[in-house]
Design goal:
about 230 residues; alpha+beta; five-stranded antiparallel β-sheet; about 30% strand
């Protein structure tokens, strides 16, 4: 008997299979059947991504990951837990232009503003109620954006276009869970403002104060919060 959670999972896979067909993939299409990621650059062929293991050495485990059915430990500071399945976790994803993840968000908690520079994200809500949104540029005013947001419920699907800043906020009273799928084996993640405030090397306080229109005392406070 198929449970409700299994039904949502199968639905997600069906949507993903359509959305991330070769016509929609962003990463370069592979030129061979498999390209299992390997770290030995001396004995491998270089491609855009990870280097390839000899296809004769590939096994089923290179194309397998287990664990998306459970939540990982929560980051106490943010109230979120994330499980990523990328090329590092599943070497067989190398050159295939796809990866996935699971996120669990505590009630009244925010998955911080962030962007994926190399991939579009398709999210499917498994449980809970989420307010999600992303920002698009305003051609008439480069200092403003337009917010596109929506309340999502279990079974709802929403897409964040590649490179655009977006967020997910749990507006409900129970934990929210979702799957995120990307048209990149390594979509990247840049959180805002922590990626700016806590960069290495540091951005000068004078530049941050000017950029955020704040005084240096407030910049120092931001550093303490996001370091």
């Amino acid at each position: 008997m198929i449970t409700m959670s299994m039904w949502w999972f199968l639905t997600t896979l069906a949507i993903t299979a359509f959305f991330y067909s070769p016509a929609y993939a962003y990463d370069n299409e592979p030129l061979q059947d498999t390209c299992v990621a390997v770290n030995d650059n001396q004995t491998s062929v270089f491609v855009n991504g990870k280097t390839c293991e000899n296809p004769k050495l590939a096994t089923a485990n290179d194309f397998y990951f287990s664990g998306l059915n459970v939540s990982r430990d929560v980051y106490p500071k943010f109230g979120i837990a994330v499980t990523v399945v990328g090329v590092k976790e599943m070497p067989g994803l190398n050159t295939l232009g796809i990866s996935t993840s699971r996120a669990d968000i505590e009630p009244q908690s925010l998955f911080p503003f962030h962007t994926h520079p190399r991939g579009t994200e398709l999210v499917t809500v498994l449980k809970g109620t989420l307010l999600v949104g992303f920002f698009v540029s305003d051609p008439k005013n480069i200092f403003k954006t337009r917010l596109l947001s929506k309340i999502l419920y279990p079974g709802d699907v929403f897409v964040f276009p590649r490179g655009l800043i977006h967020f997910l906020y749990n507006v409900g009273n129970q934990k929210a869970s979702l799957f995120g799928t990307y048209n990149s084996q390594n979509p990247g993640l840049i959180t805002i403002p922590s990626s700016i405030i806590s960069s290495t090397p540091r951005v000068m306080d004078t530049i941050l104060a000017e950029g955020f229109q704040l005084n240096k005392t407030l910049i120092a406070e931001l550093r303490r919060k996001f370091s």
